[in-house]
Amino acid sequence: MAPLPPPGGPDWYKDAIFYQLHVKTFCDSDGDGIGDFRGLTGKLDYIRDLGVTCLWLLPMYPSPFRDDGYDIADYCSIHPGYGSMDDFRAFLDAAHVRGMRVITELVLNHTSDQHQWFKEARSSRDHPRRDWYVWSDSDDRYPGVRIIFTDTERSNWAWDPVTKQYYWHRFFSHQPDLNFENPAVREEIWNVMKFWLDVGVDGFRVDAVPYLIEREGTSCENLPETHDVLKFLRRRLDEHYTSKVLLAEANQWPEDVRHYFGDNDEFHMAFHFPLMPRMFMALRLEDRKPLVEIVERTPPIPDSCQWGIFLRNHDELTLEMVTEVERDYMYEEYARDPVARINVGIRRRLAPLLEGDRRRIELMNGLLMSLPGSPFMYYGDEIGMGDNIYLGDRNGVRTPMQWNGGWNGGFSSADPERLAQPVISNALYGYQAVNVESQRRADHSLLNWTRRLIQARKSSPVFSRGSISFLKPVNHRVLAYLRALDREQVLVVCNLASTAQAVQLDLSEQAGALPIEMFGKSVFPRIGTSPYVLTLGPYEFFWFKLRRL
Ligand code: GLC
Q1: Residue of the CA atom closest to atom 2 of ligand 1
Q2: Where are the extended beta strands (E) located within 312-435?
Q3: Tens digits of residue pLDDT in 142-192
Q4: Is the Cα torsion angle 100, 308, 228, 263 positive or negative in sign?
Q5: Which of 150, 266, 427, 527 ranks highest by number of CB atoms within 10 Å?
C-alpha cells in the first residue's frame, strides 16, 4: 500500500517550505545524460535535510522540448528520458515517507502542436476536435493583446497552411491555446488533474492561468469567464479530494491576483510576482520603499489562502510587473550585459545577480524566509550556483545540479557532450568551486547556513501565518517589520545598505519585551519607551523573538 501523505492539516501549504527542481538536470542515475526519477529519489534525503517540505517539479511529460517541457504532447505519462510511471510512483512514495509532499505542473492554457488533440484539430475544419483550439480567418481579432515572448513572437496568431486559418497562442507559436469555451476541454483538463491526483500528487502549480478565455475589446487577461473555468476546476477538486493545493502562476498586479483566490473557491495559493523585483530593487537602491509599498498595496486574502514568494525560478527574473522607469533601472543595475536580458526580464540566477556577495545572498534569503507567504527556493540556489547566459532561451538557469567536484559535477556519468544541459565549469561558479559535497563539510558554507535559516523560520509559526506591520524609522536604508500571531511576535530588522547603519526604532508598544536574537539566542537589552537603538553592519539582518514579561 502506498504510504500516507505527510502529516499536516488541509492547509499544510501555509507552513510549507517549497523547493523547485527540474528532473532533467537534478540527477542522472543511468548515465544517459538526462536526469531521471531514480536519480532524484536518491537525492531526497539531501532535500529533506535542507528542511524542505514540498517539492515542485517542472513539467515531466512527453514533449518535443521546444519550451523545455511546457509544450506538452501527452498529459498522462512520463517523459521516457525521466523514467517510467513506476519510477515516478516509487519517487512519490519515497518523498511521502520522508515527510515531503510533491506538486507537479498543470499547463492548461496550451498544448504542444505535437499533441494528438492539436494534430486532430488541425487535420480538417470539420474534425470534432477542431473546436478544442481557437481559430480565426483573420489575424486581427483581439487587437492590442500583449505578446509575452517578445523576443521570439510578433503576433498571438499563427497561420495553419493545411486548413487555412489562424490559431491563437499566447506563448510560442508551437503552443496553441486550448479553447476553454468548450466544456469538453474543461472536462478533459479535470480528467488530467484527476489522473495525477489518483497517482498521489499533492497538488499543482497551474501554469499561465490569466489567459484561458478570449474576449474582443479586452486584454484577454483575468476575464471573469477565466475565473469561472478555474472555479469549476476547484469545485471538482473539493468534491473529490482533501488536502490538495492549487497554486496559480498569474504574473499580475496584486489587485488582479487577489481574484484568483476568489472567496476561497479558486486557488489556495498564488505567486506574488510584483514583490520579487522590488526586493532586488530595494537592495540596489538601499531603500526599503519599493518593498514596503508593494506589501502594503497587497490586499488581504482569505484565511485558508497563502502567497507563494520567491527570489528566482526557472524563468527570467520577470520585469513585467514594474513601471518603465523601474525596468530601466533594473536592467541597468542587474543586467548591464544585454545577453543577460530576455523577453521582459533578466536570465540570471540568484548568486550572479548579487555578484556572488555572500552578505547580500544571506540578506535576500532572510527576506524570503520572513516576509508573508510560503517560500519557494530554486534548486542550486542553496549552494550559490551560477548560470550560463549564452545557452539560449532560459536554459542558462537550468543547468545540472552541482553535487561534487568530480566528473560532470556528480550529475551524470555520461560524456560531457551528451548532457541534457552543459554543466557550469567556470572558475567562480563551476562545479569544482561550488558543490554540495564541499559545502556539506564546511560548517559556515551557504548550504549549512541556509539549513539553519530554514530551521529558524520553522521555529515560529509567525512567519507562515502571522500578520506583518512595518516600522518606519527615519533611516530608510533599514527595513524593519513585526510579524505577529496571537501573543507571539518576531521583529525583523534588515540593513539594505553596503555600509554600516544605525537605526532608532519606535517599539513603545512592545515596551517591556526582551528581544532574543533567533540564530544565536543572545538576549538583547530590554525594550523601553524611548526609541530602541540598533547598529547593523553592511547587509546585516536580525530576527528577534520578543519575549514578554
Ligand atoms: C510559464 C512557465 C514558462 C513557460 C510558459 C509557457 O510562464 O513558467 O517557463 O515558458 O509558462 O508555458
Answers
A1: 207
A2: 317-318, 341-342, 345-346, 374-378
A3: 999 999 999 999 999 999 999 999 999 999 999 999 999 999 999 999 999
A4: positive
A5: 266
For residue 385 and ligand 1, the question of a CB distance below 6 A is answered with no
CA separation for the pair 60, 150 (Å, rounded): 26
Residue whose Cα lies nearest atom 7 of ligand 1: it is: 208
Alpha carbon nearest to ligand 1 atom 4, residue: 70
70 in contact with ligand 1, CB cutoff 6 A = yes
Q: What is the dihedral of CA 79, 83, 84, 90, to 10 degrees?
A: -130
CA 476 to chain CA centroid, Å, is: 29
Please count the other Cβ atoms lying within 10 Å of the Cβ belonging to residue 182: 16
| 348 vs 333: CA distance, rounded Å | 13
pTM: 0.97
- Gyration radius of the chain's alpha carbons: 24
Nearest protein Cα to ligand 1, atom 5 = 70
Cα–Cα nearest to 291, from 304, 307, 305, 275: 275
Instruction: Catalogue the active-site residues.
Output: 207, 249
Q: Which of 147, 207, 312, 344 to mutate to test the pocket of ligand 1 (most atoms within 8 A of CB)?
A: 207
Contact 381, 351 (CB under 8 A): yes
Distance, CA of 540 to CA of 495 (rounded, Å) = 5
Query: Among 529, 339, 361, which residue's Cα sits nearest to residue 439?
Result: 361
Cβ of 207 below 6 Å from ligand 1: yes
Total length of the chain: 549
CA of 472 to the centre of ligand 1 (A): 38
Cell, residue 349: 540566477
